Amino acid sequence: xxxxxxxxxxxxxxxxxxxxxxxxxxxxxxxxxxxxxxxxxxxxxxxxxxxxxxxxxxxxxxxxxxxxxxxxxxxxxxxxxxxxxxxxxxxxxxxxxxxxxxxxxxxxxxxxxxxxxxxxxxxxxxxxxx
Length: 130
Description:
With 130 residues, the chain is mainly alpha-helical. 71% of the residues lie in helices and 0% in strands. α3 (104-114) packs across α4 (116-129). The protein starts with 17 loop residues before the first helix and ends with a helix.
């Protein structure tokens, strides 16, 4: 009301935006922290995977080495060697002073001599497996 002396004046007033800026800074810090956590997690997973691959390679190399050494220890079969020669060679490997009944070969011979039918059945089953 102008008769009473009332006047309306419009003035521009800036709002307090410090709270909004603090929130943006807090969100930026959370984003940065989340990014660092993701990076650390990926590095841990990658390191674990690398360690697993390294262990797998070591195990494979060890198995190969064992296979090659076992293969080197077993001599290749000679084509012109008779069974009697092989048996005689094995008998020479037995240390002196041990009675033949105590060796595995002696025990097998005794078992074959006493149970010839069982020995023949075992040999037949071995031959039919091939």
